[in-house]
Design brief:
Elements: H1 2-15, E1 23-26, H2 28-34, H3 36-72, H4 79-132, E2 137-140, E3 155-156, H5 158-164
Parallel strand pairs: 1-2, 1-3
Amino acid sequence: MKKIAYIAALALMGATPAVAQKIGHINVDSLLVIMPEYTVAMENLQNEQAKMEAEAKEMQAELEKGAQLLQAKANEWTELRQKQEQQRLQEAYSNIQEYMQNAQQVLQTKEVEALTPILEKMQKAIDEVATSMKLSYVLDSSRSKGQIVFSKNGENLMKSVKAKLAIK
């Protein structure tokens, strides 16, 4: 009987509400796009992408020029020469496709390399503000994430984190 009373007492103690936990929220997407480092990183990535696109267009123009030459000389060249030119053009086309795939991979790698320290800096600022405000949880209120559907009494960290990052 004592065991049952003891277990019941423990169960009741566990059912009592714990210390109220403070919850904060911040729109991470909005914070990220106003960080100067992010703007610089995105501009650098866009410039790199523009260079790669220009190179791909140049390669495409050379391919088209070769195709036009093949078409213009079709009656003058032997069948063997035509086949060699067609093969050369096919290889050029394959090279362009490979270049475009590699360029995409390079851009993705550069994006990760550029954004990782920025995201780490942002996370550190959020952590420090949340700790100073004695918050138990911080939720991302960005629309793209859809994490918060209702917020009444949570702490909005945006102002404090922007101050921590020296962003106006």
